[in-house]
Design brief:
This protein is an alpha/beta fold. 44% of the residues lie in helices and 16% in strands. Strand 8 and strand 9 form a beta hairpin. The chain is elongated.
Length: 458
């Protein structure tokens, strides 16, 4: 079943504008695998442009394959033998009479096979005689970033534009799959913002079927997904999988993760930082606490599908390999509401960040946890959403509920009692907001439902 291409309007507009310039341009398109980089580029290119997707073969084979593709645009191009990349690209430049675009997708495979290729492209760019646009695209986030940001790279400082393609925003999941607001949140908690996953979901009649067919089945497209993602950027996949499995299993503090890895915490700083840079992990830092305060930080998996995998697939692979999925499906049925609740909180914080609610514009929203004195007793509390207004006069304190039948008046009063004794609410106007799955009983007019959260995530 085909899925409509959604979002990326800004990227399409900027890329089209860039390629239409009179002078040839050089652009980088990067981002994690499955995020839709190639699809975006293909929508921009015309029939006169040249698109080539590389693979892990030797240089001679890669050059032969590219020559064959070019021959569809310039007859006979593939009949010649080119001794190296310089000869091939120079020959192409000679044949071009009207500006076109050459896209080299999966560029890291080409550079891995022949490390001199970036220097060849540099020479073309610096010659002043280039007649075509060049787009380099790849899923190795580290290499694609270093191509133009590392001072030691031949292509450093030469890009016209750098498109870092991230996950698609929540509202477009609803548009792509034609779901209700509630079902959109439930599906996001499994598939996140990756369009390739959405396409697989759309091929199934239900969320449950899609999970069974694509994630739990050893023959499913996403059964080995973490390994496919990690091999682009990480040398020690075993250590990476160990860390992700531990965090996915519920260990979130550095000391606890290190203990389960049987390593000193200092040994984990680099791999954890790398996983954060790649967007696979994130630090959960309480509101009002500096990001440098590592004692308060919690580590969490940042991608819903990876989080789902390390919770339900990694720990149960023995059952799944034997085809005994019923046990795991029952476990998912029980735990999926809580998983939806976790990602609902994330989406609510995203909805608040930078948005205006009741005329007040708020900055970054975070969680907060700690001890407060309530009714004469110290109590451990967690606040789902906390954000300060840009004018610093208001503090939004929010509670997220992914359950039905809440009482708005009772819940608001309960949160108000806690909010009044939080360490950062003194001399501020405290605005209590409830983010609820359904409209609560005795609604106080301060409830925000899934359809509004989706709208605020545009």
């Amino acid at each position: 079943m085909n899925m409509e291409f959604v979002d990326r309007a800004t990227e399409q507009e900027k890329l089209r504008s860039l390629l239409s310039k009179k002078e040839p341009v050089f652009a980088i398109v990067r981002g994690r695998r499955r995020v839709g980089k190639s699809t975006l580029i293909k929508r921009i290119l015309t029939g006169d442009d040249i698109y080539f997707e590389a693979d892990r073969t030797d240089t001679a084979t890669q050059m032969s394959n590219l020559s064959y593709v070019i021959s569809h645009r310039f007859s006979g191009f593939g009949d010649a033998w080119y001794k190296d990349w310089r000869a091939l690209l120079t020959a192409l430049n000679y044949r071009v009479t009207e500006k076109l675009t050459l896209c080299l997708d999966e560029f890291p495979y080409l550079a891995e096979s022949d490390p001199s290729l970036p220097s060849v492209i540099q020479t073309l760019l610096d010659s002043g005689e280039l007649r075509f646009n060049i787009i380099l695209c790849g899923s190795s986030q580290t290499m694609m970033y270093n191509l133009t940001h590392d001072e030691a790279s031949p292509l450093y400082g030469r890009k016209e534009a750098d498109f870092n393609i991230g996950p698609i925003r929540l509202p477009y999941l609803q548009e792509a799959l034609g779901l209700s607001a509630e079902a959109t949140i439930e599906n996001y908690a499994v598939w996140g913002g990756i369009p390739r996953y959405w396409k697989l979901r759309k091929e199934s009649l239900s969320l449950k079927d899609a999970i069974k067919d694509h994630i739990l089945s050893p023959f499913g497209a996403l059964y080995e997904e973490p390994q496919h993602l990690f091999r682009d950027d990480l040398k020690d996949i075993v250590k990476t999988a160990t860390i992700m499995t531990i965090i996915g299993g519920g260990a979130t503090r550095l000391k606890e993760i290190a203990s389960k890895c049987n390593e000193p915490a200092t040994n984990l700083s680099r791999p954890l930082a790398k996983l954060i840079d790649l967007g696979y992990l994130e630090k959960d830092i309480p509101f009002g606490v500096s990001a440098k305060d590592s004692k308060k930080s919690l580590y969490r998996i940042a991608d819903p599908l990876l989080s789902f995998h390390y919770k339900f697939v990694s720990a149960n692979r023995s059952f799944l390999e034997l085809g005994r999925t019923a046990l795991i499906e029952n476990l998912i049925d029980v735990e999926l509401p809580d998983r939806c609740g976790y990602w609902w909180e994330r989406l609510c914080r995203d909805a608040v960040t930078g948005n205006t609610i009741n005329g007040i514009t708020y900055g970054e929203a975070r969680r907060w946890w700690g001890q407060v004195l309530v009714d004469g007793k110290y109590k451990d509390v967690e606040i789902d959403v906390v954000a300060e207004s840009l004018d610093k006069k208001h503090i939004l304190v929010g509670e997220c509920k992914w359950t039905a039948g809440e009482n708005g008046r009772l819940l608001t009063n309960e949160i108000r009692k806690i909010a009044d004794v939080l360490p950062f609410t003194a001399n501020r106007q405290v605005d209590i907001v409830l983010f609820t799955k359904t409209l609560p009983e005795e609604d106080m007019g301060n409830s925000i439902l899934p359809d509004k959260v989706i709208e605020m995530n545009y």
